[in-house]
Predict the structure.
Amino acid sequence: MNKKIYWIPAVALILLSCSAKKDGETEAAVQNDFDVFCQQFTQVTQSADFAQLSSEERALRLESRLAGELEPNANAYIAWSAIRNGPPSERYALYKDAAASAGQKNWDCPAVQQYGHEVGSPHD
Amino acid sequence: MGDVVGVVRDHKNVIQTTGGTIASIGLEQAGKKVAGVLVTPATWAVNYAVEGSTPGAVDIGIWLSGLISAPASIVTGFIKAAVDDDINRKLALVQAKEPHPMAQYIKACYNFGMASPAINAMTIANSGGTAWITSVGLWVYITDAKGQLVGDYQPQEFVTMYRPKHPYRATSTGGFAWEVIRR
């Protein structure tokens, strides 16, 4: 009887380890969200007419790209939807905070750092 | 009658597991969800310590079947209970520092949407509300009595606050231009 009892923690540990794997997969998916955002943002900044577009036009272009690449409930997409209307000078820090809060403490994106304040609603 | 007594005696742990479930509901209502989750195995430990009795095969079978049939929900439930306990404790600390009439309408950003609390806070500001994080590390926001976001609340204590920029201006996307205030 006592030997049978030892199976309880063993089974529980196996199940917990399976659960931990799923958590890891979720984290990977979250990382992908912000990496996709960075990739799309970078491509927008590299377009030939980027300099001629207003910040709102750039945001519209990025929005159309992201809508096809990210799920509406993705952390990166929700963050973008809000930060595009946030203060331009704070946007890079806000993206970094958003990524960190979603589990990506080391996320960075040079294009966002350089042009983040020039993509989104103007605050003039 | 004798058979019933025998069944009750032999499977006391099953009976107490049921009682434990009821007790766990009481504990959860008291804001101690982690304790509630732990009640069921705890009844076995108490029985062993007090009477030297161990759970029977039926007890273990029932407990294991629940564990095997719904492992994800058990793990998720345990983690959520721990998170809820922590949030409730921190929210009480935040509310204690705000004026009494308004404090009851302060809520945790954790429950606002599907994203992380920090991202939810940004969404709240973008939607016309005030969200802030205090020194206890909890993102919160405030509504009026009807549940509408409040855009001009000035919290007594905050580290960083997001709120619509004054004068209010709707953007082409339907959100508000918002600002970041750091103390």
Summary: Chain A touches chain B at residues 1-2, 4-5, 8, 11-12, 15-16, 18-19, 22, 56, 59, 63, 73, 75, 78-79, 81-87, 90, 94, 97-98, 100-102, 121, 123 (CB under 8 Å). The mean pLDDT of chain A is 84. The two ends of chain A are 75 Å apart (CA to CA).
